[in-house]
Amino acid sequence: MAEPLLQTRDLSMHFGGVKAVNNVNFALAEGELRCLIGPNGAGKSTFFKMLTGQLAPSHGQVLFRGRDISRAQAHQIARLGIGIKTQVPSVFDGLSVRENIHLAASRLHSLDRVRRVVDEMLERIGLTDAAHRVVGQLAHGQRQWVELGLVLSTDPELILLDEPAAGMTHEEVQRTAELVREISRTRALIVVEHDMQFIRMIAKQVTVFNRGSVLVEDAVENILRNPLVRDVYLGKQAAA
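RE: above sequence
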């Protein structure tokens, strides 16, 4: 069996006597799209922060291609080929969309190729017409797409997204789902999300967290029908 692209071994995070994440074993295959869901306080956000270097685990390991990155800093993790997009967009609000993408692309590509990469990325995220607009003046969804463009411009092998659909309009959620599905054709992704409509649009395999542990992992259609998942997370909306 092929080695996972990313895996955790007995990964735990304790805050005093509180076990926010407790002995989680998780594996993501090359090119896989995995969604992480769970009720508030289930541990998924803490798990995400350990994957991205924002928190050092109390116990256990995070492995990327077999390399222990459990205590690596976020910038070190990014250099290994992991793109990170947090819930709050990390963009340069005072610069234009093109300037933002240019800065990200220039970290990896030669100067004579950057312009082509930027043009391709603007088209990919659907912001060619807004290329010269200042990012701080854009709608929330557009600012999220700019950051996604920044992440993609560094050509990562794995992309970690924290609630990419949060605060978006219905149309923005649909466009974001299209982007995620398109990205998943060539890159592995882990998506932490609350919006079950968005999960339905993008998910294949889903990992459900509850009380700091993995409750169940299964195909999305089975997750949506699972009575245990409905009890702890979906509730009555699962029948909708």
